[in-house]
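Worked Example 4.2. Consider the chain below.
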Amino acid sequence: MHDIVVIETLDPEAELDRLAGYYRNAGGTGVKFLNRLGGSAETLLDQLPVPVRDGLLEATEQALWLAIRAADQSRRAIRDQDPWINTAVTTTMGAAGGLGGLSTALIELPATTAILLRAIQGVAAREGFDPSSENVKFDCIRVLSAAGPMSFDDGADLGFFSARLTLTGPALQKLIAAVAPRLSVVLGQKLAAQTVPVLGALAGGGTNYVYSRYYQQVARVHFGLRRLSIDADIPHEDLVQRLSRKMLH
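Applying the procedure from the previous section yields the following structure tokens:
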């Protein structure tokens, strides 16, 4: 008697439904809470002191360089953590950063960026990609250029998943230069919400909780689409269009 082998076939539509759920969950009640806490995404940046706003791009570029080095080094020593652990760590760091207002929040920024990047790398690894390979490493950094939780709108940023960066010359330097302007706006919104008077640590922990959850969910969609494209042999652009149609329903 021969054993019966059951081959499980991949259902692209079911997988796209799952990824659509992740994308919807990226913007949940926490995002709505932060918008009420700090105001709209458009007004949050106006709440920062002018010198801080003017220095955001440079601070973001420095945070990204530090995050890349820290994430790469930590992968050699510490295994990838479950998503809830990454969220808990960033929440704790945000609470500590919020205790001292804007000054400590600025100091905390590179460390939080590094944890977020490491969490994104963990998502890539769980989808079967090697975070140490150059193209996957670049994709992980690109996830940080998503719209950000303060500006979340179902389907509004789906173009991000199909966008391609054309890199010439020193590739990593070009990538940082391309990602930093958008991320600086997102981090500026985080800083403003994190320094709400009186709430302090609560606001800092809350913003980091939402940010960690948001970027891990976006990463699940990003690398999930890449994995589905490979496994189902469907062009990536077609999958993004099909996901976009699902987000409209």
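The chain has one domain: 28-247. Confidence is low (pLDDT under 50) at residues 1-8. Compare this with Example 4.1 before moving on.
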